[in-house]
Design goal:
The complex is a heterodimer of chains A (about 1050) and B (about 140). Chain A has about 1050 residues and is of the alpha/beta class. Chain A has 29 helices and 35 strands. The longest helix of chain A has about 40 residues. Chain A starts with 7 loop residues before the first helix and ends with a helix. The chains are: A alpha/beta (about 1050), B mainly alpha (about 140).
Chain lengths: ~1050, ~140
């Protein structure tokens, strides 16, 4: 026994170490258990077992693929990405037919971006570039011969210093454009320029992404004295130096021409393209290329004829874009008076989540709606138009795009062909003198009357607005095609928030014009107006004189009833179309009932000079906080979770806990024998309505714990529900398709078709794991990452957008994803928006139409889109919790239209709510958005997920501004993109005494189930399928380690106990 | 003064480290409560374990049970630390995986440093002799 007294030190060490280890393991296990789904998801471990019943002969692949092999799908995806680039690349300039080049031309490729292309964005916009085609490869594949000296130098370690770079520990906070200076390039290339002098191709690259905007950052762009400081979207002195150097070589006849590629998802300043001192002969906007880069070389050599049109205005100088004055986060200067913290967090991107705001002061006049309208008013001689020189403002207008061919338009015939349908017929001819076949898009614009009704009721009317578009097939020189473009008359209606409180057709003359660019369209409208007797000062016309034959006038009477009801049946009752009325008065500071003394002068056609400011420092609209604003802001964090920078927390007068009630709770855990798959069709084979009473029986089966599990974890998934055999779904990020940063397993998740086919072929072991040597290796490749969405918009091709959607849907089907966190339907409000690569255009209608076709195809493959970030996430600066103040007209006709059309036309099922606020209400807590608009007016059937929830609830170092339970109860939100704790003041608190919350939770779970039912997640499931929860391997391993360490700790304790007892005994005996 | 001199005459370095550890535990709990008391990351159990541990340790010292004092303090401090970890992990994971990576604020880092120092000191105490063993026995 005395042996136990020996090794005292060892005993102590064993006891202490095993104690600490045991404690750490216990807490670790507890935490791991709480997060088992996410851990399993990351480890690819199964959390439930699928038990198939006797389903012989039953085909459970409800949604089928068009492909036999995943490799075929990948190749089709890459081809489609190339098609998008081929049709979306915009030829901006082509003096003296500098392009196309000829095969075997010897050219010098200049600029670091030429050798290090921008494929996508950062953050959500990141795409896997494993299969991307670089400019070098693209040009060489197109049989251009590249200057080998430059190729070697740009790839050398020595020149790594000139690469684009970012500074900062995480993300991109500081931009370094860099590039090799001209003297270095010239010295290195020397005489080779002459040998490879058929052309110098210089690429200008910029990159943006999530979490930051591009303005007011410490970049190394040039300060051109425009008040924007060192401007990331202007060329740097180094870049301009390179262009000047190339111009000198051209002047010395050492190179023949200078071609510029602009490799950025949105627009940089375009002044340099037109400035003769830089000698640019041709310029192409290639966006961010995704996996479609192979098209660039083919465009340069004429194998492909460019047909893209700009989705945004390219400004000469961004300081001339007045939106930038209000493109920032501003702090309510009196927020502290109401106990609202006004301090920025201390993180990488400091934000004041409770007290920042921005005013969309431009209202309707965003992008081309501003440039063309003010231009028209100059030409029409409108008073108070102020100083405005279009030539100095716009480098290339919205819709601009050249071709190597000349196209002629004839026989325009626009007729009213239905109650709300107009049809524009136009014949397009590829001129016989053209050297190349090509295709061209035909945008159609409407010019609405800006008359007494508009003026009286604060309805703003841009000069022209895109209403639809068509695109020809490839036409050989001399060939013609007549396009029939159907136009929805609803786009002629304006939203009147003051009088009709709905969409109205205002009385007066409407001009429907085909344009090409918006500027051509307005010139055509002006020509038509002149022909109709309106005074037009032709001396002020900029650009080619318009043709009145390309615009047609319609005179309409006042009508406020035609569009008074929504287009879709409400998803709130499944029966009725809702009366459209003001939903967002609270987001317009002039109509908000808690506005106090605030008033904003939105831009007005009647007073350009009095409402538009270009003062970047002080010109923004200013708003002060009011008591009601503070009350509403705090209302959305009823449990007061997280940190508050005011230390005192929520002021007592603003504490608004969710009220208890004594209502009856829903039933939980009943056994009614219904599985989710049984809810699809009734006995007659008809789809079961969401409102069918059988859903009540179905929902009664789900337990409280299952309810909480589903609603507390939505991190890129929806949870499985064992009681009703609802499978877990995988919902992955993908504004540019599924080819993003996820998918480390490629297509081989256990939910997807790729896996099921391998399993069926017997290429799995007894545990269901793939046998790598036997499976198709293509399955480990990644899905297609498409070019930036601006390029897709630039195609002006709805069919192509649909085909892109088909690939994305197929990628989801094969990889086992039934949800896509995309597409990105926010608006390019400013070129400085960080995430332009994820979004389409400055135009809500172009965004909406292109996105609708893309969504339609994605949905057809059982992948539900979560269109994001709905809405007003049009800047990254202070995106968390920023109050956006905007008129309802602009909100509906631009920003929400981009989300509405994908739902009404494209059957988009789900939505991701934005981080930001409508007025004071964060999008995920905004009933007007979630319930009244998305589900009510648009008829959205599925669910609303928050944006990354950990960024909203105070977990990050910023004030919390949204609480999930409140979002479910009030905002119509359903699940967090992240995790919500189940304990504390969260779900467990509502288990009794809060029936209203419980019923809202049940409705959210029902919506989750319903959207899962109508997704590809049900492939492989029949009525006989069951899911049974299992303990994943890592939990088994963890529990085993717990047991072993527990035993060691127990033995150590026993050892210590006995030793102490013996020591005491010995001591006492000695003492005696 | 003589009493104090006599009292400390048989104490070894470990005893002083234990006293320092008790003080550190009190400071840690105060820092913790001042940073997190108004947040959902506060564990009152952690706070209680640490303070009760200090009181009980003081009690053992008062009753001259020097050899058991460090073990008790280690046990309570460590359990307190586990509660702290359990309540703070959600914050840590959110910061780590959040899109808007804000980094860890200074107060978080300060708090972590205090907890770590407290644990290390508690462990060290256990391995250090507290008082002269012979004298201790004679006193008994």
């Amino acid at each position: 026994m005395n042996k136990l007294l020996k090794f005292k030190l060892l005993r102590k060490i064993a006891t202490v170490v095993s104690f600490i280890l045991f404690g750490v393991l216990m807490v670790g296990t507890l935490i791991a258990d709480e997060n088992s789904t996410i851990i399993s998801q990351q480890l690819g471990a199964q959390t439930y077992e699928i038990i198939q019943g006797d389903d012989e002969g039953v085909d459970t692949e409800y949604i089928k693929s068009d492909y036999k092999k995943v490799g075929d799908l990948i190749e089709a995806g890459h081809k489609k990405a190339k098609d998008v680039m081929a049709e979306g690349t915009v030829l901006l300039k082509n003096d003296n037919n500098a392009l196309p080049l000829a095969e075997n031309d010897k050219v010098s490729l200049v600029g670091t971006t030429s050798y290090d292309p921008v494929y996508g964005g950062t953050g959500s916009g990141t795409i896997s570039t494993a299969d991307a085609v670089s400019f070098v490869k693209s040009l060489e594949d197109a049989k251009l011969v590249l200057n080998p000296t430059l190729k070697e130098k740009y790839a050398s370690d020595e020149w790594k210093q000139y690469k684009r770079a970012t500074e900062g520990k995480y993300g991109t906070t500081t931009f370094k454009i860099n590039d090799a200076p001209w003297d270095v390039v010239n010295a290195a290339a020397g005489d080779t320029f002459q040998e490879y002098g058929k052309a110098a191709i210089y690429t200008v690259g910029r990159i943006g992404g999530e979490g930051y905007d591009l303005i007011f950052k410490g970049c190394d762009g040039i300060d051109n004295g425009d008040g924007l400081g060192t401007d990331y979207l202007g060329l740097t002195s180094t870049e301009l130096g390179v262009l000047k150097g190339l111009k000198a070589l051209k002047d010395a006849n050492k190179i023949e021409k200078i071609i510029v590629l602009i490799n950025y998802a949105s627009m940089i300043e375009g002044d340099f393209i037109k400035d003769p001192q830089y000698g640019v002969d041709a310029a192409l906007w290639v966006g961010a290329t995704g996996l479609g880069g192979a098209a660039v070389g083919e465009i340069l050599t004429g194998k492909t004829n460019p047909s893209g049109r700009l989705p945004d205005t390219m400004w000469m100088d961004n300081a001339k874009n007045p939106v930038n004055v209000n493109f920032n986060a501003f702090i309510y200067e009196n927020a502290a008076d109401f106990g609202v913290p006004d301090q920025l967090g201390s993180g990488m991107y400091p934000e004041a989540t409770l007290s920042s705001y921005v005013v969309y002061q431009e209202g309707m006049y965003l992008g081309y709606r501003y440039t063309e309208t003010r231009y028209e008013d100059v030409v029409l001689g409108t008073s108070k138009v102020g100083s405005y020189n279009y030539d100095e403002v716009v480098a290339y207008p919205f819709g601009y795009g050249m071709s190597y061919s000349d196209f002629e338009y004839s026989n325009l015939d626009i007729k009213k062909t239905g109650d709300r349908e107009y049809t524009a017929k136009i014949t397009v001819t590829n001129s016989a003198s053209s050297k190349l076949p090509g295709k061209v898009s035909v945008p159609v614009y409407v010019s609405k009357p800006y008359g007494d009704y508009a003026r009286k009721n604060n309805v703003q009317v841009p000069s022209v607005e895109l209403v639809d578009f068509g695109k020809t097939d490839i036409l050989k020189p001399g060939a013609s095609q007549t396009l029939e473009i159907k136009i929805d008359e609803k786009f002629f209606a304006s939203y009147d928030a003051y009088n009709a409180k709905g969409y109205v057709l205002m009385p007066g003359d409407y001009y429907v014009a085909v344009g090409g660019s918006a500027h051509e369209a307005v010139n055509n409208v002006l020509a038509a107006k002149k022909a109709n007797g309106i005074t037009v000062d032709e001396n002020k016309i900029v650009g080619a004189k318009g043709k009145d034959s390309l615009a047609k006038k319609f005179t309409l009477g006042f009508d406020k009833t035609k569009y008074e009801f929504s287009d879709s049946v409400s998803a709130l009752d499944g029966k009725n179309k809702l009366k459209v009325t003001n939903l967002f008065d609270f987001a317009d500071i002039n109509r908000y009932d808690g506005k106090g003394d605030n008033h904003v002068d939105y831009y007005s056609r009647d007073n350009w000079e009095g409402t538009v400011s270009l003062d970047i420092e002080n010109g923004h609209a200013k708003v002060k906080m009011t008591d009601q604003m503070a009350k509403e802001i705090y209302e959305q964090v009823p449990e007061g979770t997280g940190n508050y920078n005011n230390a005192a927390g929520v002021p007592d007068k603003y504490k608004q806990p969710i009220k208890k009630d004594d209502g009856a709770y829903p039933a939980y855990g009943k056994e009614n024998g219904l599985n989710l798959i049984d809810m699809k069709y009734d006995d007659n084979g008809d789809p079961i309505s969401y409102f069918d009473p059988v859903w009540d029986d179905f929902m009664d089966q789900i337990t409280w714990d299952e309810t909480v599990t589903v609603l507390s974890n939505g991190f890129h998934l929806t949870e499985a529900i064992e009681s009703v055999t609802k499978p877990a779904t995988g919902d992955e990020n993908g504004p540019n398709g599924f080819g993003g940063w996820a998918f480390f397993q490629g297509y081989y998740t256990k939910r997807g078709l790729a896996y099921r086919l391998e399993a069926k072929a017997g290429h799995v072991d007894e545990k269901g794991n793939l046998i790598k040597e036997q499976v198709d290796p293509d399955g480990y490749r990644k899905p297609t990452g498409f070019p930036a969405n601006g390029i897709l918009a630039a195609t002006f091709n709805k069919q192509l957008s649909y085909e892109v959607g088909k690939i994305i849907g197929e990628d989801g089907l094969w990889a086992g994803f039934s949800g896509l966190y995309g597409i990105g339907a926010n608006i390019h409000r400013s070129p400085y928006l960080g995430r332009t690569c994820e979004y389409y255009s400055e135009c809500g209608t172009l965004t909406g139409l292109i996105a609708a076709y893309e969504c339609k195809a994605i949905e057809e493959k059982g992948v539900h889109v979560y269109n994001k970030h709905c809405a007003l996430n049009d800047q990254e600066n202070c995106r968390h919790g920023i109050c956006n103040w905007i008129t309802e007209q602009a909100l509906r006709e631009i920003y929400l239209r981009a989300f509405e059309l994908p739902i009404t036309m494209g059957n988009a099922y789900n939505t991701m709510a934005s981080f930001s606020r409508f007025g004071t209400y964060s999008a995920a807590a905004c009933r007007a958005l979630g319930m009244d608009f998305l589900r009510g007016e648009c008829g959205m059937k599925g669910i609303i997920v928050t944006d990354a929830y950990g960024d909203m609830d105070g977990s990050q170092n910023c004030d919390p501004y949204f609480e999930m339970v409140y979002g479910i109860l009030v905002g119509g939100s359903d699940i967090p993109d992240g995790q919500q704790p189940k304990k504390g003041n969260h779900y467990d608190k509502f288990k009794t005494g809060y029936s209203e919350v419980a019923w809202a939770m049940r409705e959210s779970v029902k919506r989750v189930c319903y959207q899962t039912l109508w997704s590809n997640a049900m492939n492989g499931y029949s009525s006989n399928t069951r899911i049974v929860k299992i303990t994943p391997w890592w939990q088994v391993a963890l529990n085993s380690v717990d047991a072993v360490v527990g035993v060691i700790f127990g033995l150590s304790l026993v050892w210590t106990g006995i030793a102490v007892f013996l020591e005491e005994k010995e001591r006492r005996s000695k003492k005696a | 003064m003589n009493f104090l001199k006599e009292y400390f005459s048989d104490k070894k370095y470990g005893f002083y480290v234990t006293l320092a550890c008790m003080l550190l535990s009190v400071i840690t709990s105060v820092v913790y409560v001042s940073i997190y008391s108004s947040t959902r990351f506060m564990s009152w159990a952690a706070f209680a374990f640490i303070l009760v541990g200090v009181v009980l340790t003081a009690g053992l010292i008062a009753f001259k049970q020097y050899r058991f004092a460090p073990a008790l303090m280690l046990a309570t401090n460590f359990v307190g630390l586990l509660f702290y970890v359990y309540y703070i992990y959600f914050f840590v994971s959110s910061v780590m995986v959040g899109i808007q990576f804000s980094g860890f604020p200074p107060e978080f880092i300060i708090n972590v440093i205090f907890f770590v120092l407290m644990l290390v000191a508690s462990v060290v105490c256990v391995f250090m002799p507290q008082a002269d063993e012979k004298q201790e026995k004679e006193v008994e």
